């Protein structure tokens, strides 16, 4: 929690917004959680791996002790995830017009163990006062969700 802003509330709200946008585009969606309770990392991966022809998107908001760090970044662990991450990251930056921290390889449990194209999106730094202020507004979380949806659309068209 930073400045009375909780990362889990931001992430869940963004996930709901993304779900709504994807359903409007005709996608079927599955959420690993619908309220503020903890789901273990293996459970999250297991839920995703039950589906064929699907993708796995994990939504987070970042933090660091360095309060001047800012920007959005998207992580991947496999080649399929890398292609999805590039589409999503480019769409996020277009929508939000914020600092581009780029697409990065990482070995986070949920993207490393997913059998699906999987990404982990960091929608900015809660520890940065200016970004935290943006995150509090619905338009910014909606822009993050729309950027992810746009990136998924581009990925699906290409593959």
Explain what you see:
The chain is α/β, with parallel strands linked by helices. It has helices at residues 7-24, 41-49, 79-96, 109-112, 129-135, 138-158, and strands spanning 56-62, 72-76, 100-105, 118-125. The longest helix has 21 residues, at 138-158. It is globular, with a radius of gyration of 15 Å. The model has no long low-confidence stretch (mean pLDDT 94).
Stretches with pLDDT under 50, minimum 5 residues: none
How many helical elements?
6
Structural class: alpha/beta
| Mean pLDDT reading | 94
What distance separates the N and C termini?
A: 39 Å
The backbone outline, from C-alpha atoms, is: globular
Number of strands: 4
Largest sheet: 4 strands, mixed
| Run of helices and strands | HHEEHEHEHH
Strand content: 15-25%
Order of strands, main sheet, comes to 1-4-2-3
The radius of gyration computed from the alpha-carbon positions, rounded to a whole number of angstroms, is 15 Å
Helix fraction bin? 40-55%
Describe the SSE topology.
Layout: H1 7-24, H2 41-49, E1 56-62, E2 72-76, H3 79-96, E3 100-105, H4 109-112, E4 118-125, H5 129-135, H6 138-158
Parallel strand pairs: 1-4, 2-3
Antiparallel strand pairs: 2-4
Helix pairs in contact: 1-6, 3-6
């Amino acid at each position: 929690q930073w400045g009375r802003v909780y990362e889990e509330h931001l992430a869940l709200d963004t996930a709901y917004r993304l779900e709504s946008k994807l359903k409007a585009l005709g996608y079927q969606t599955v959420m690993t959680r619908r309220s503020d309770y903890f789901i273990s990392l293996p459970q999250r991966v297991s839920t995703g791996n039950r589906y064929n022809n699907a993708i796995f998107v994990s939504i987070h908001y970042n933090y660091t002790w360095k309060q001047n760090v800012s920007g959005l970044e998207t992580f991947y662990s496999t080649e399929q995830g890398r292609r999805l991450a590039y589409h999503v990251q480019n769409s996020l930056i277009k929508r939000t017009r914020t600092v581009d921290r780029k697409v990065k390889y990482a070995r986070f449990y949920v993207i490393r163990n997913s059998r699906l194209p999987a990404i982990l999106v960091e929608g900015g730094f809660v520890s940065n006062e200016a970004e935290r202020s943006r995150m509090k507004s619905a338009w910014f979380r909606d822009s993050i969700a729309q950027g992810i949806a746009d990136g998924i659309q581009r990925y699906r068209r290409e593959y």
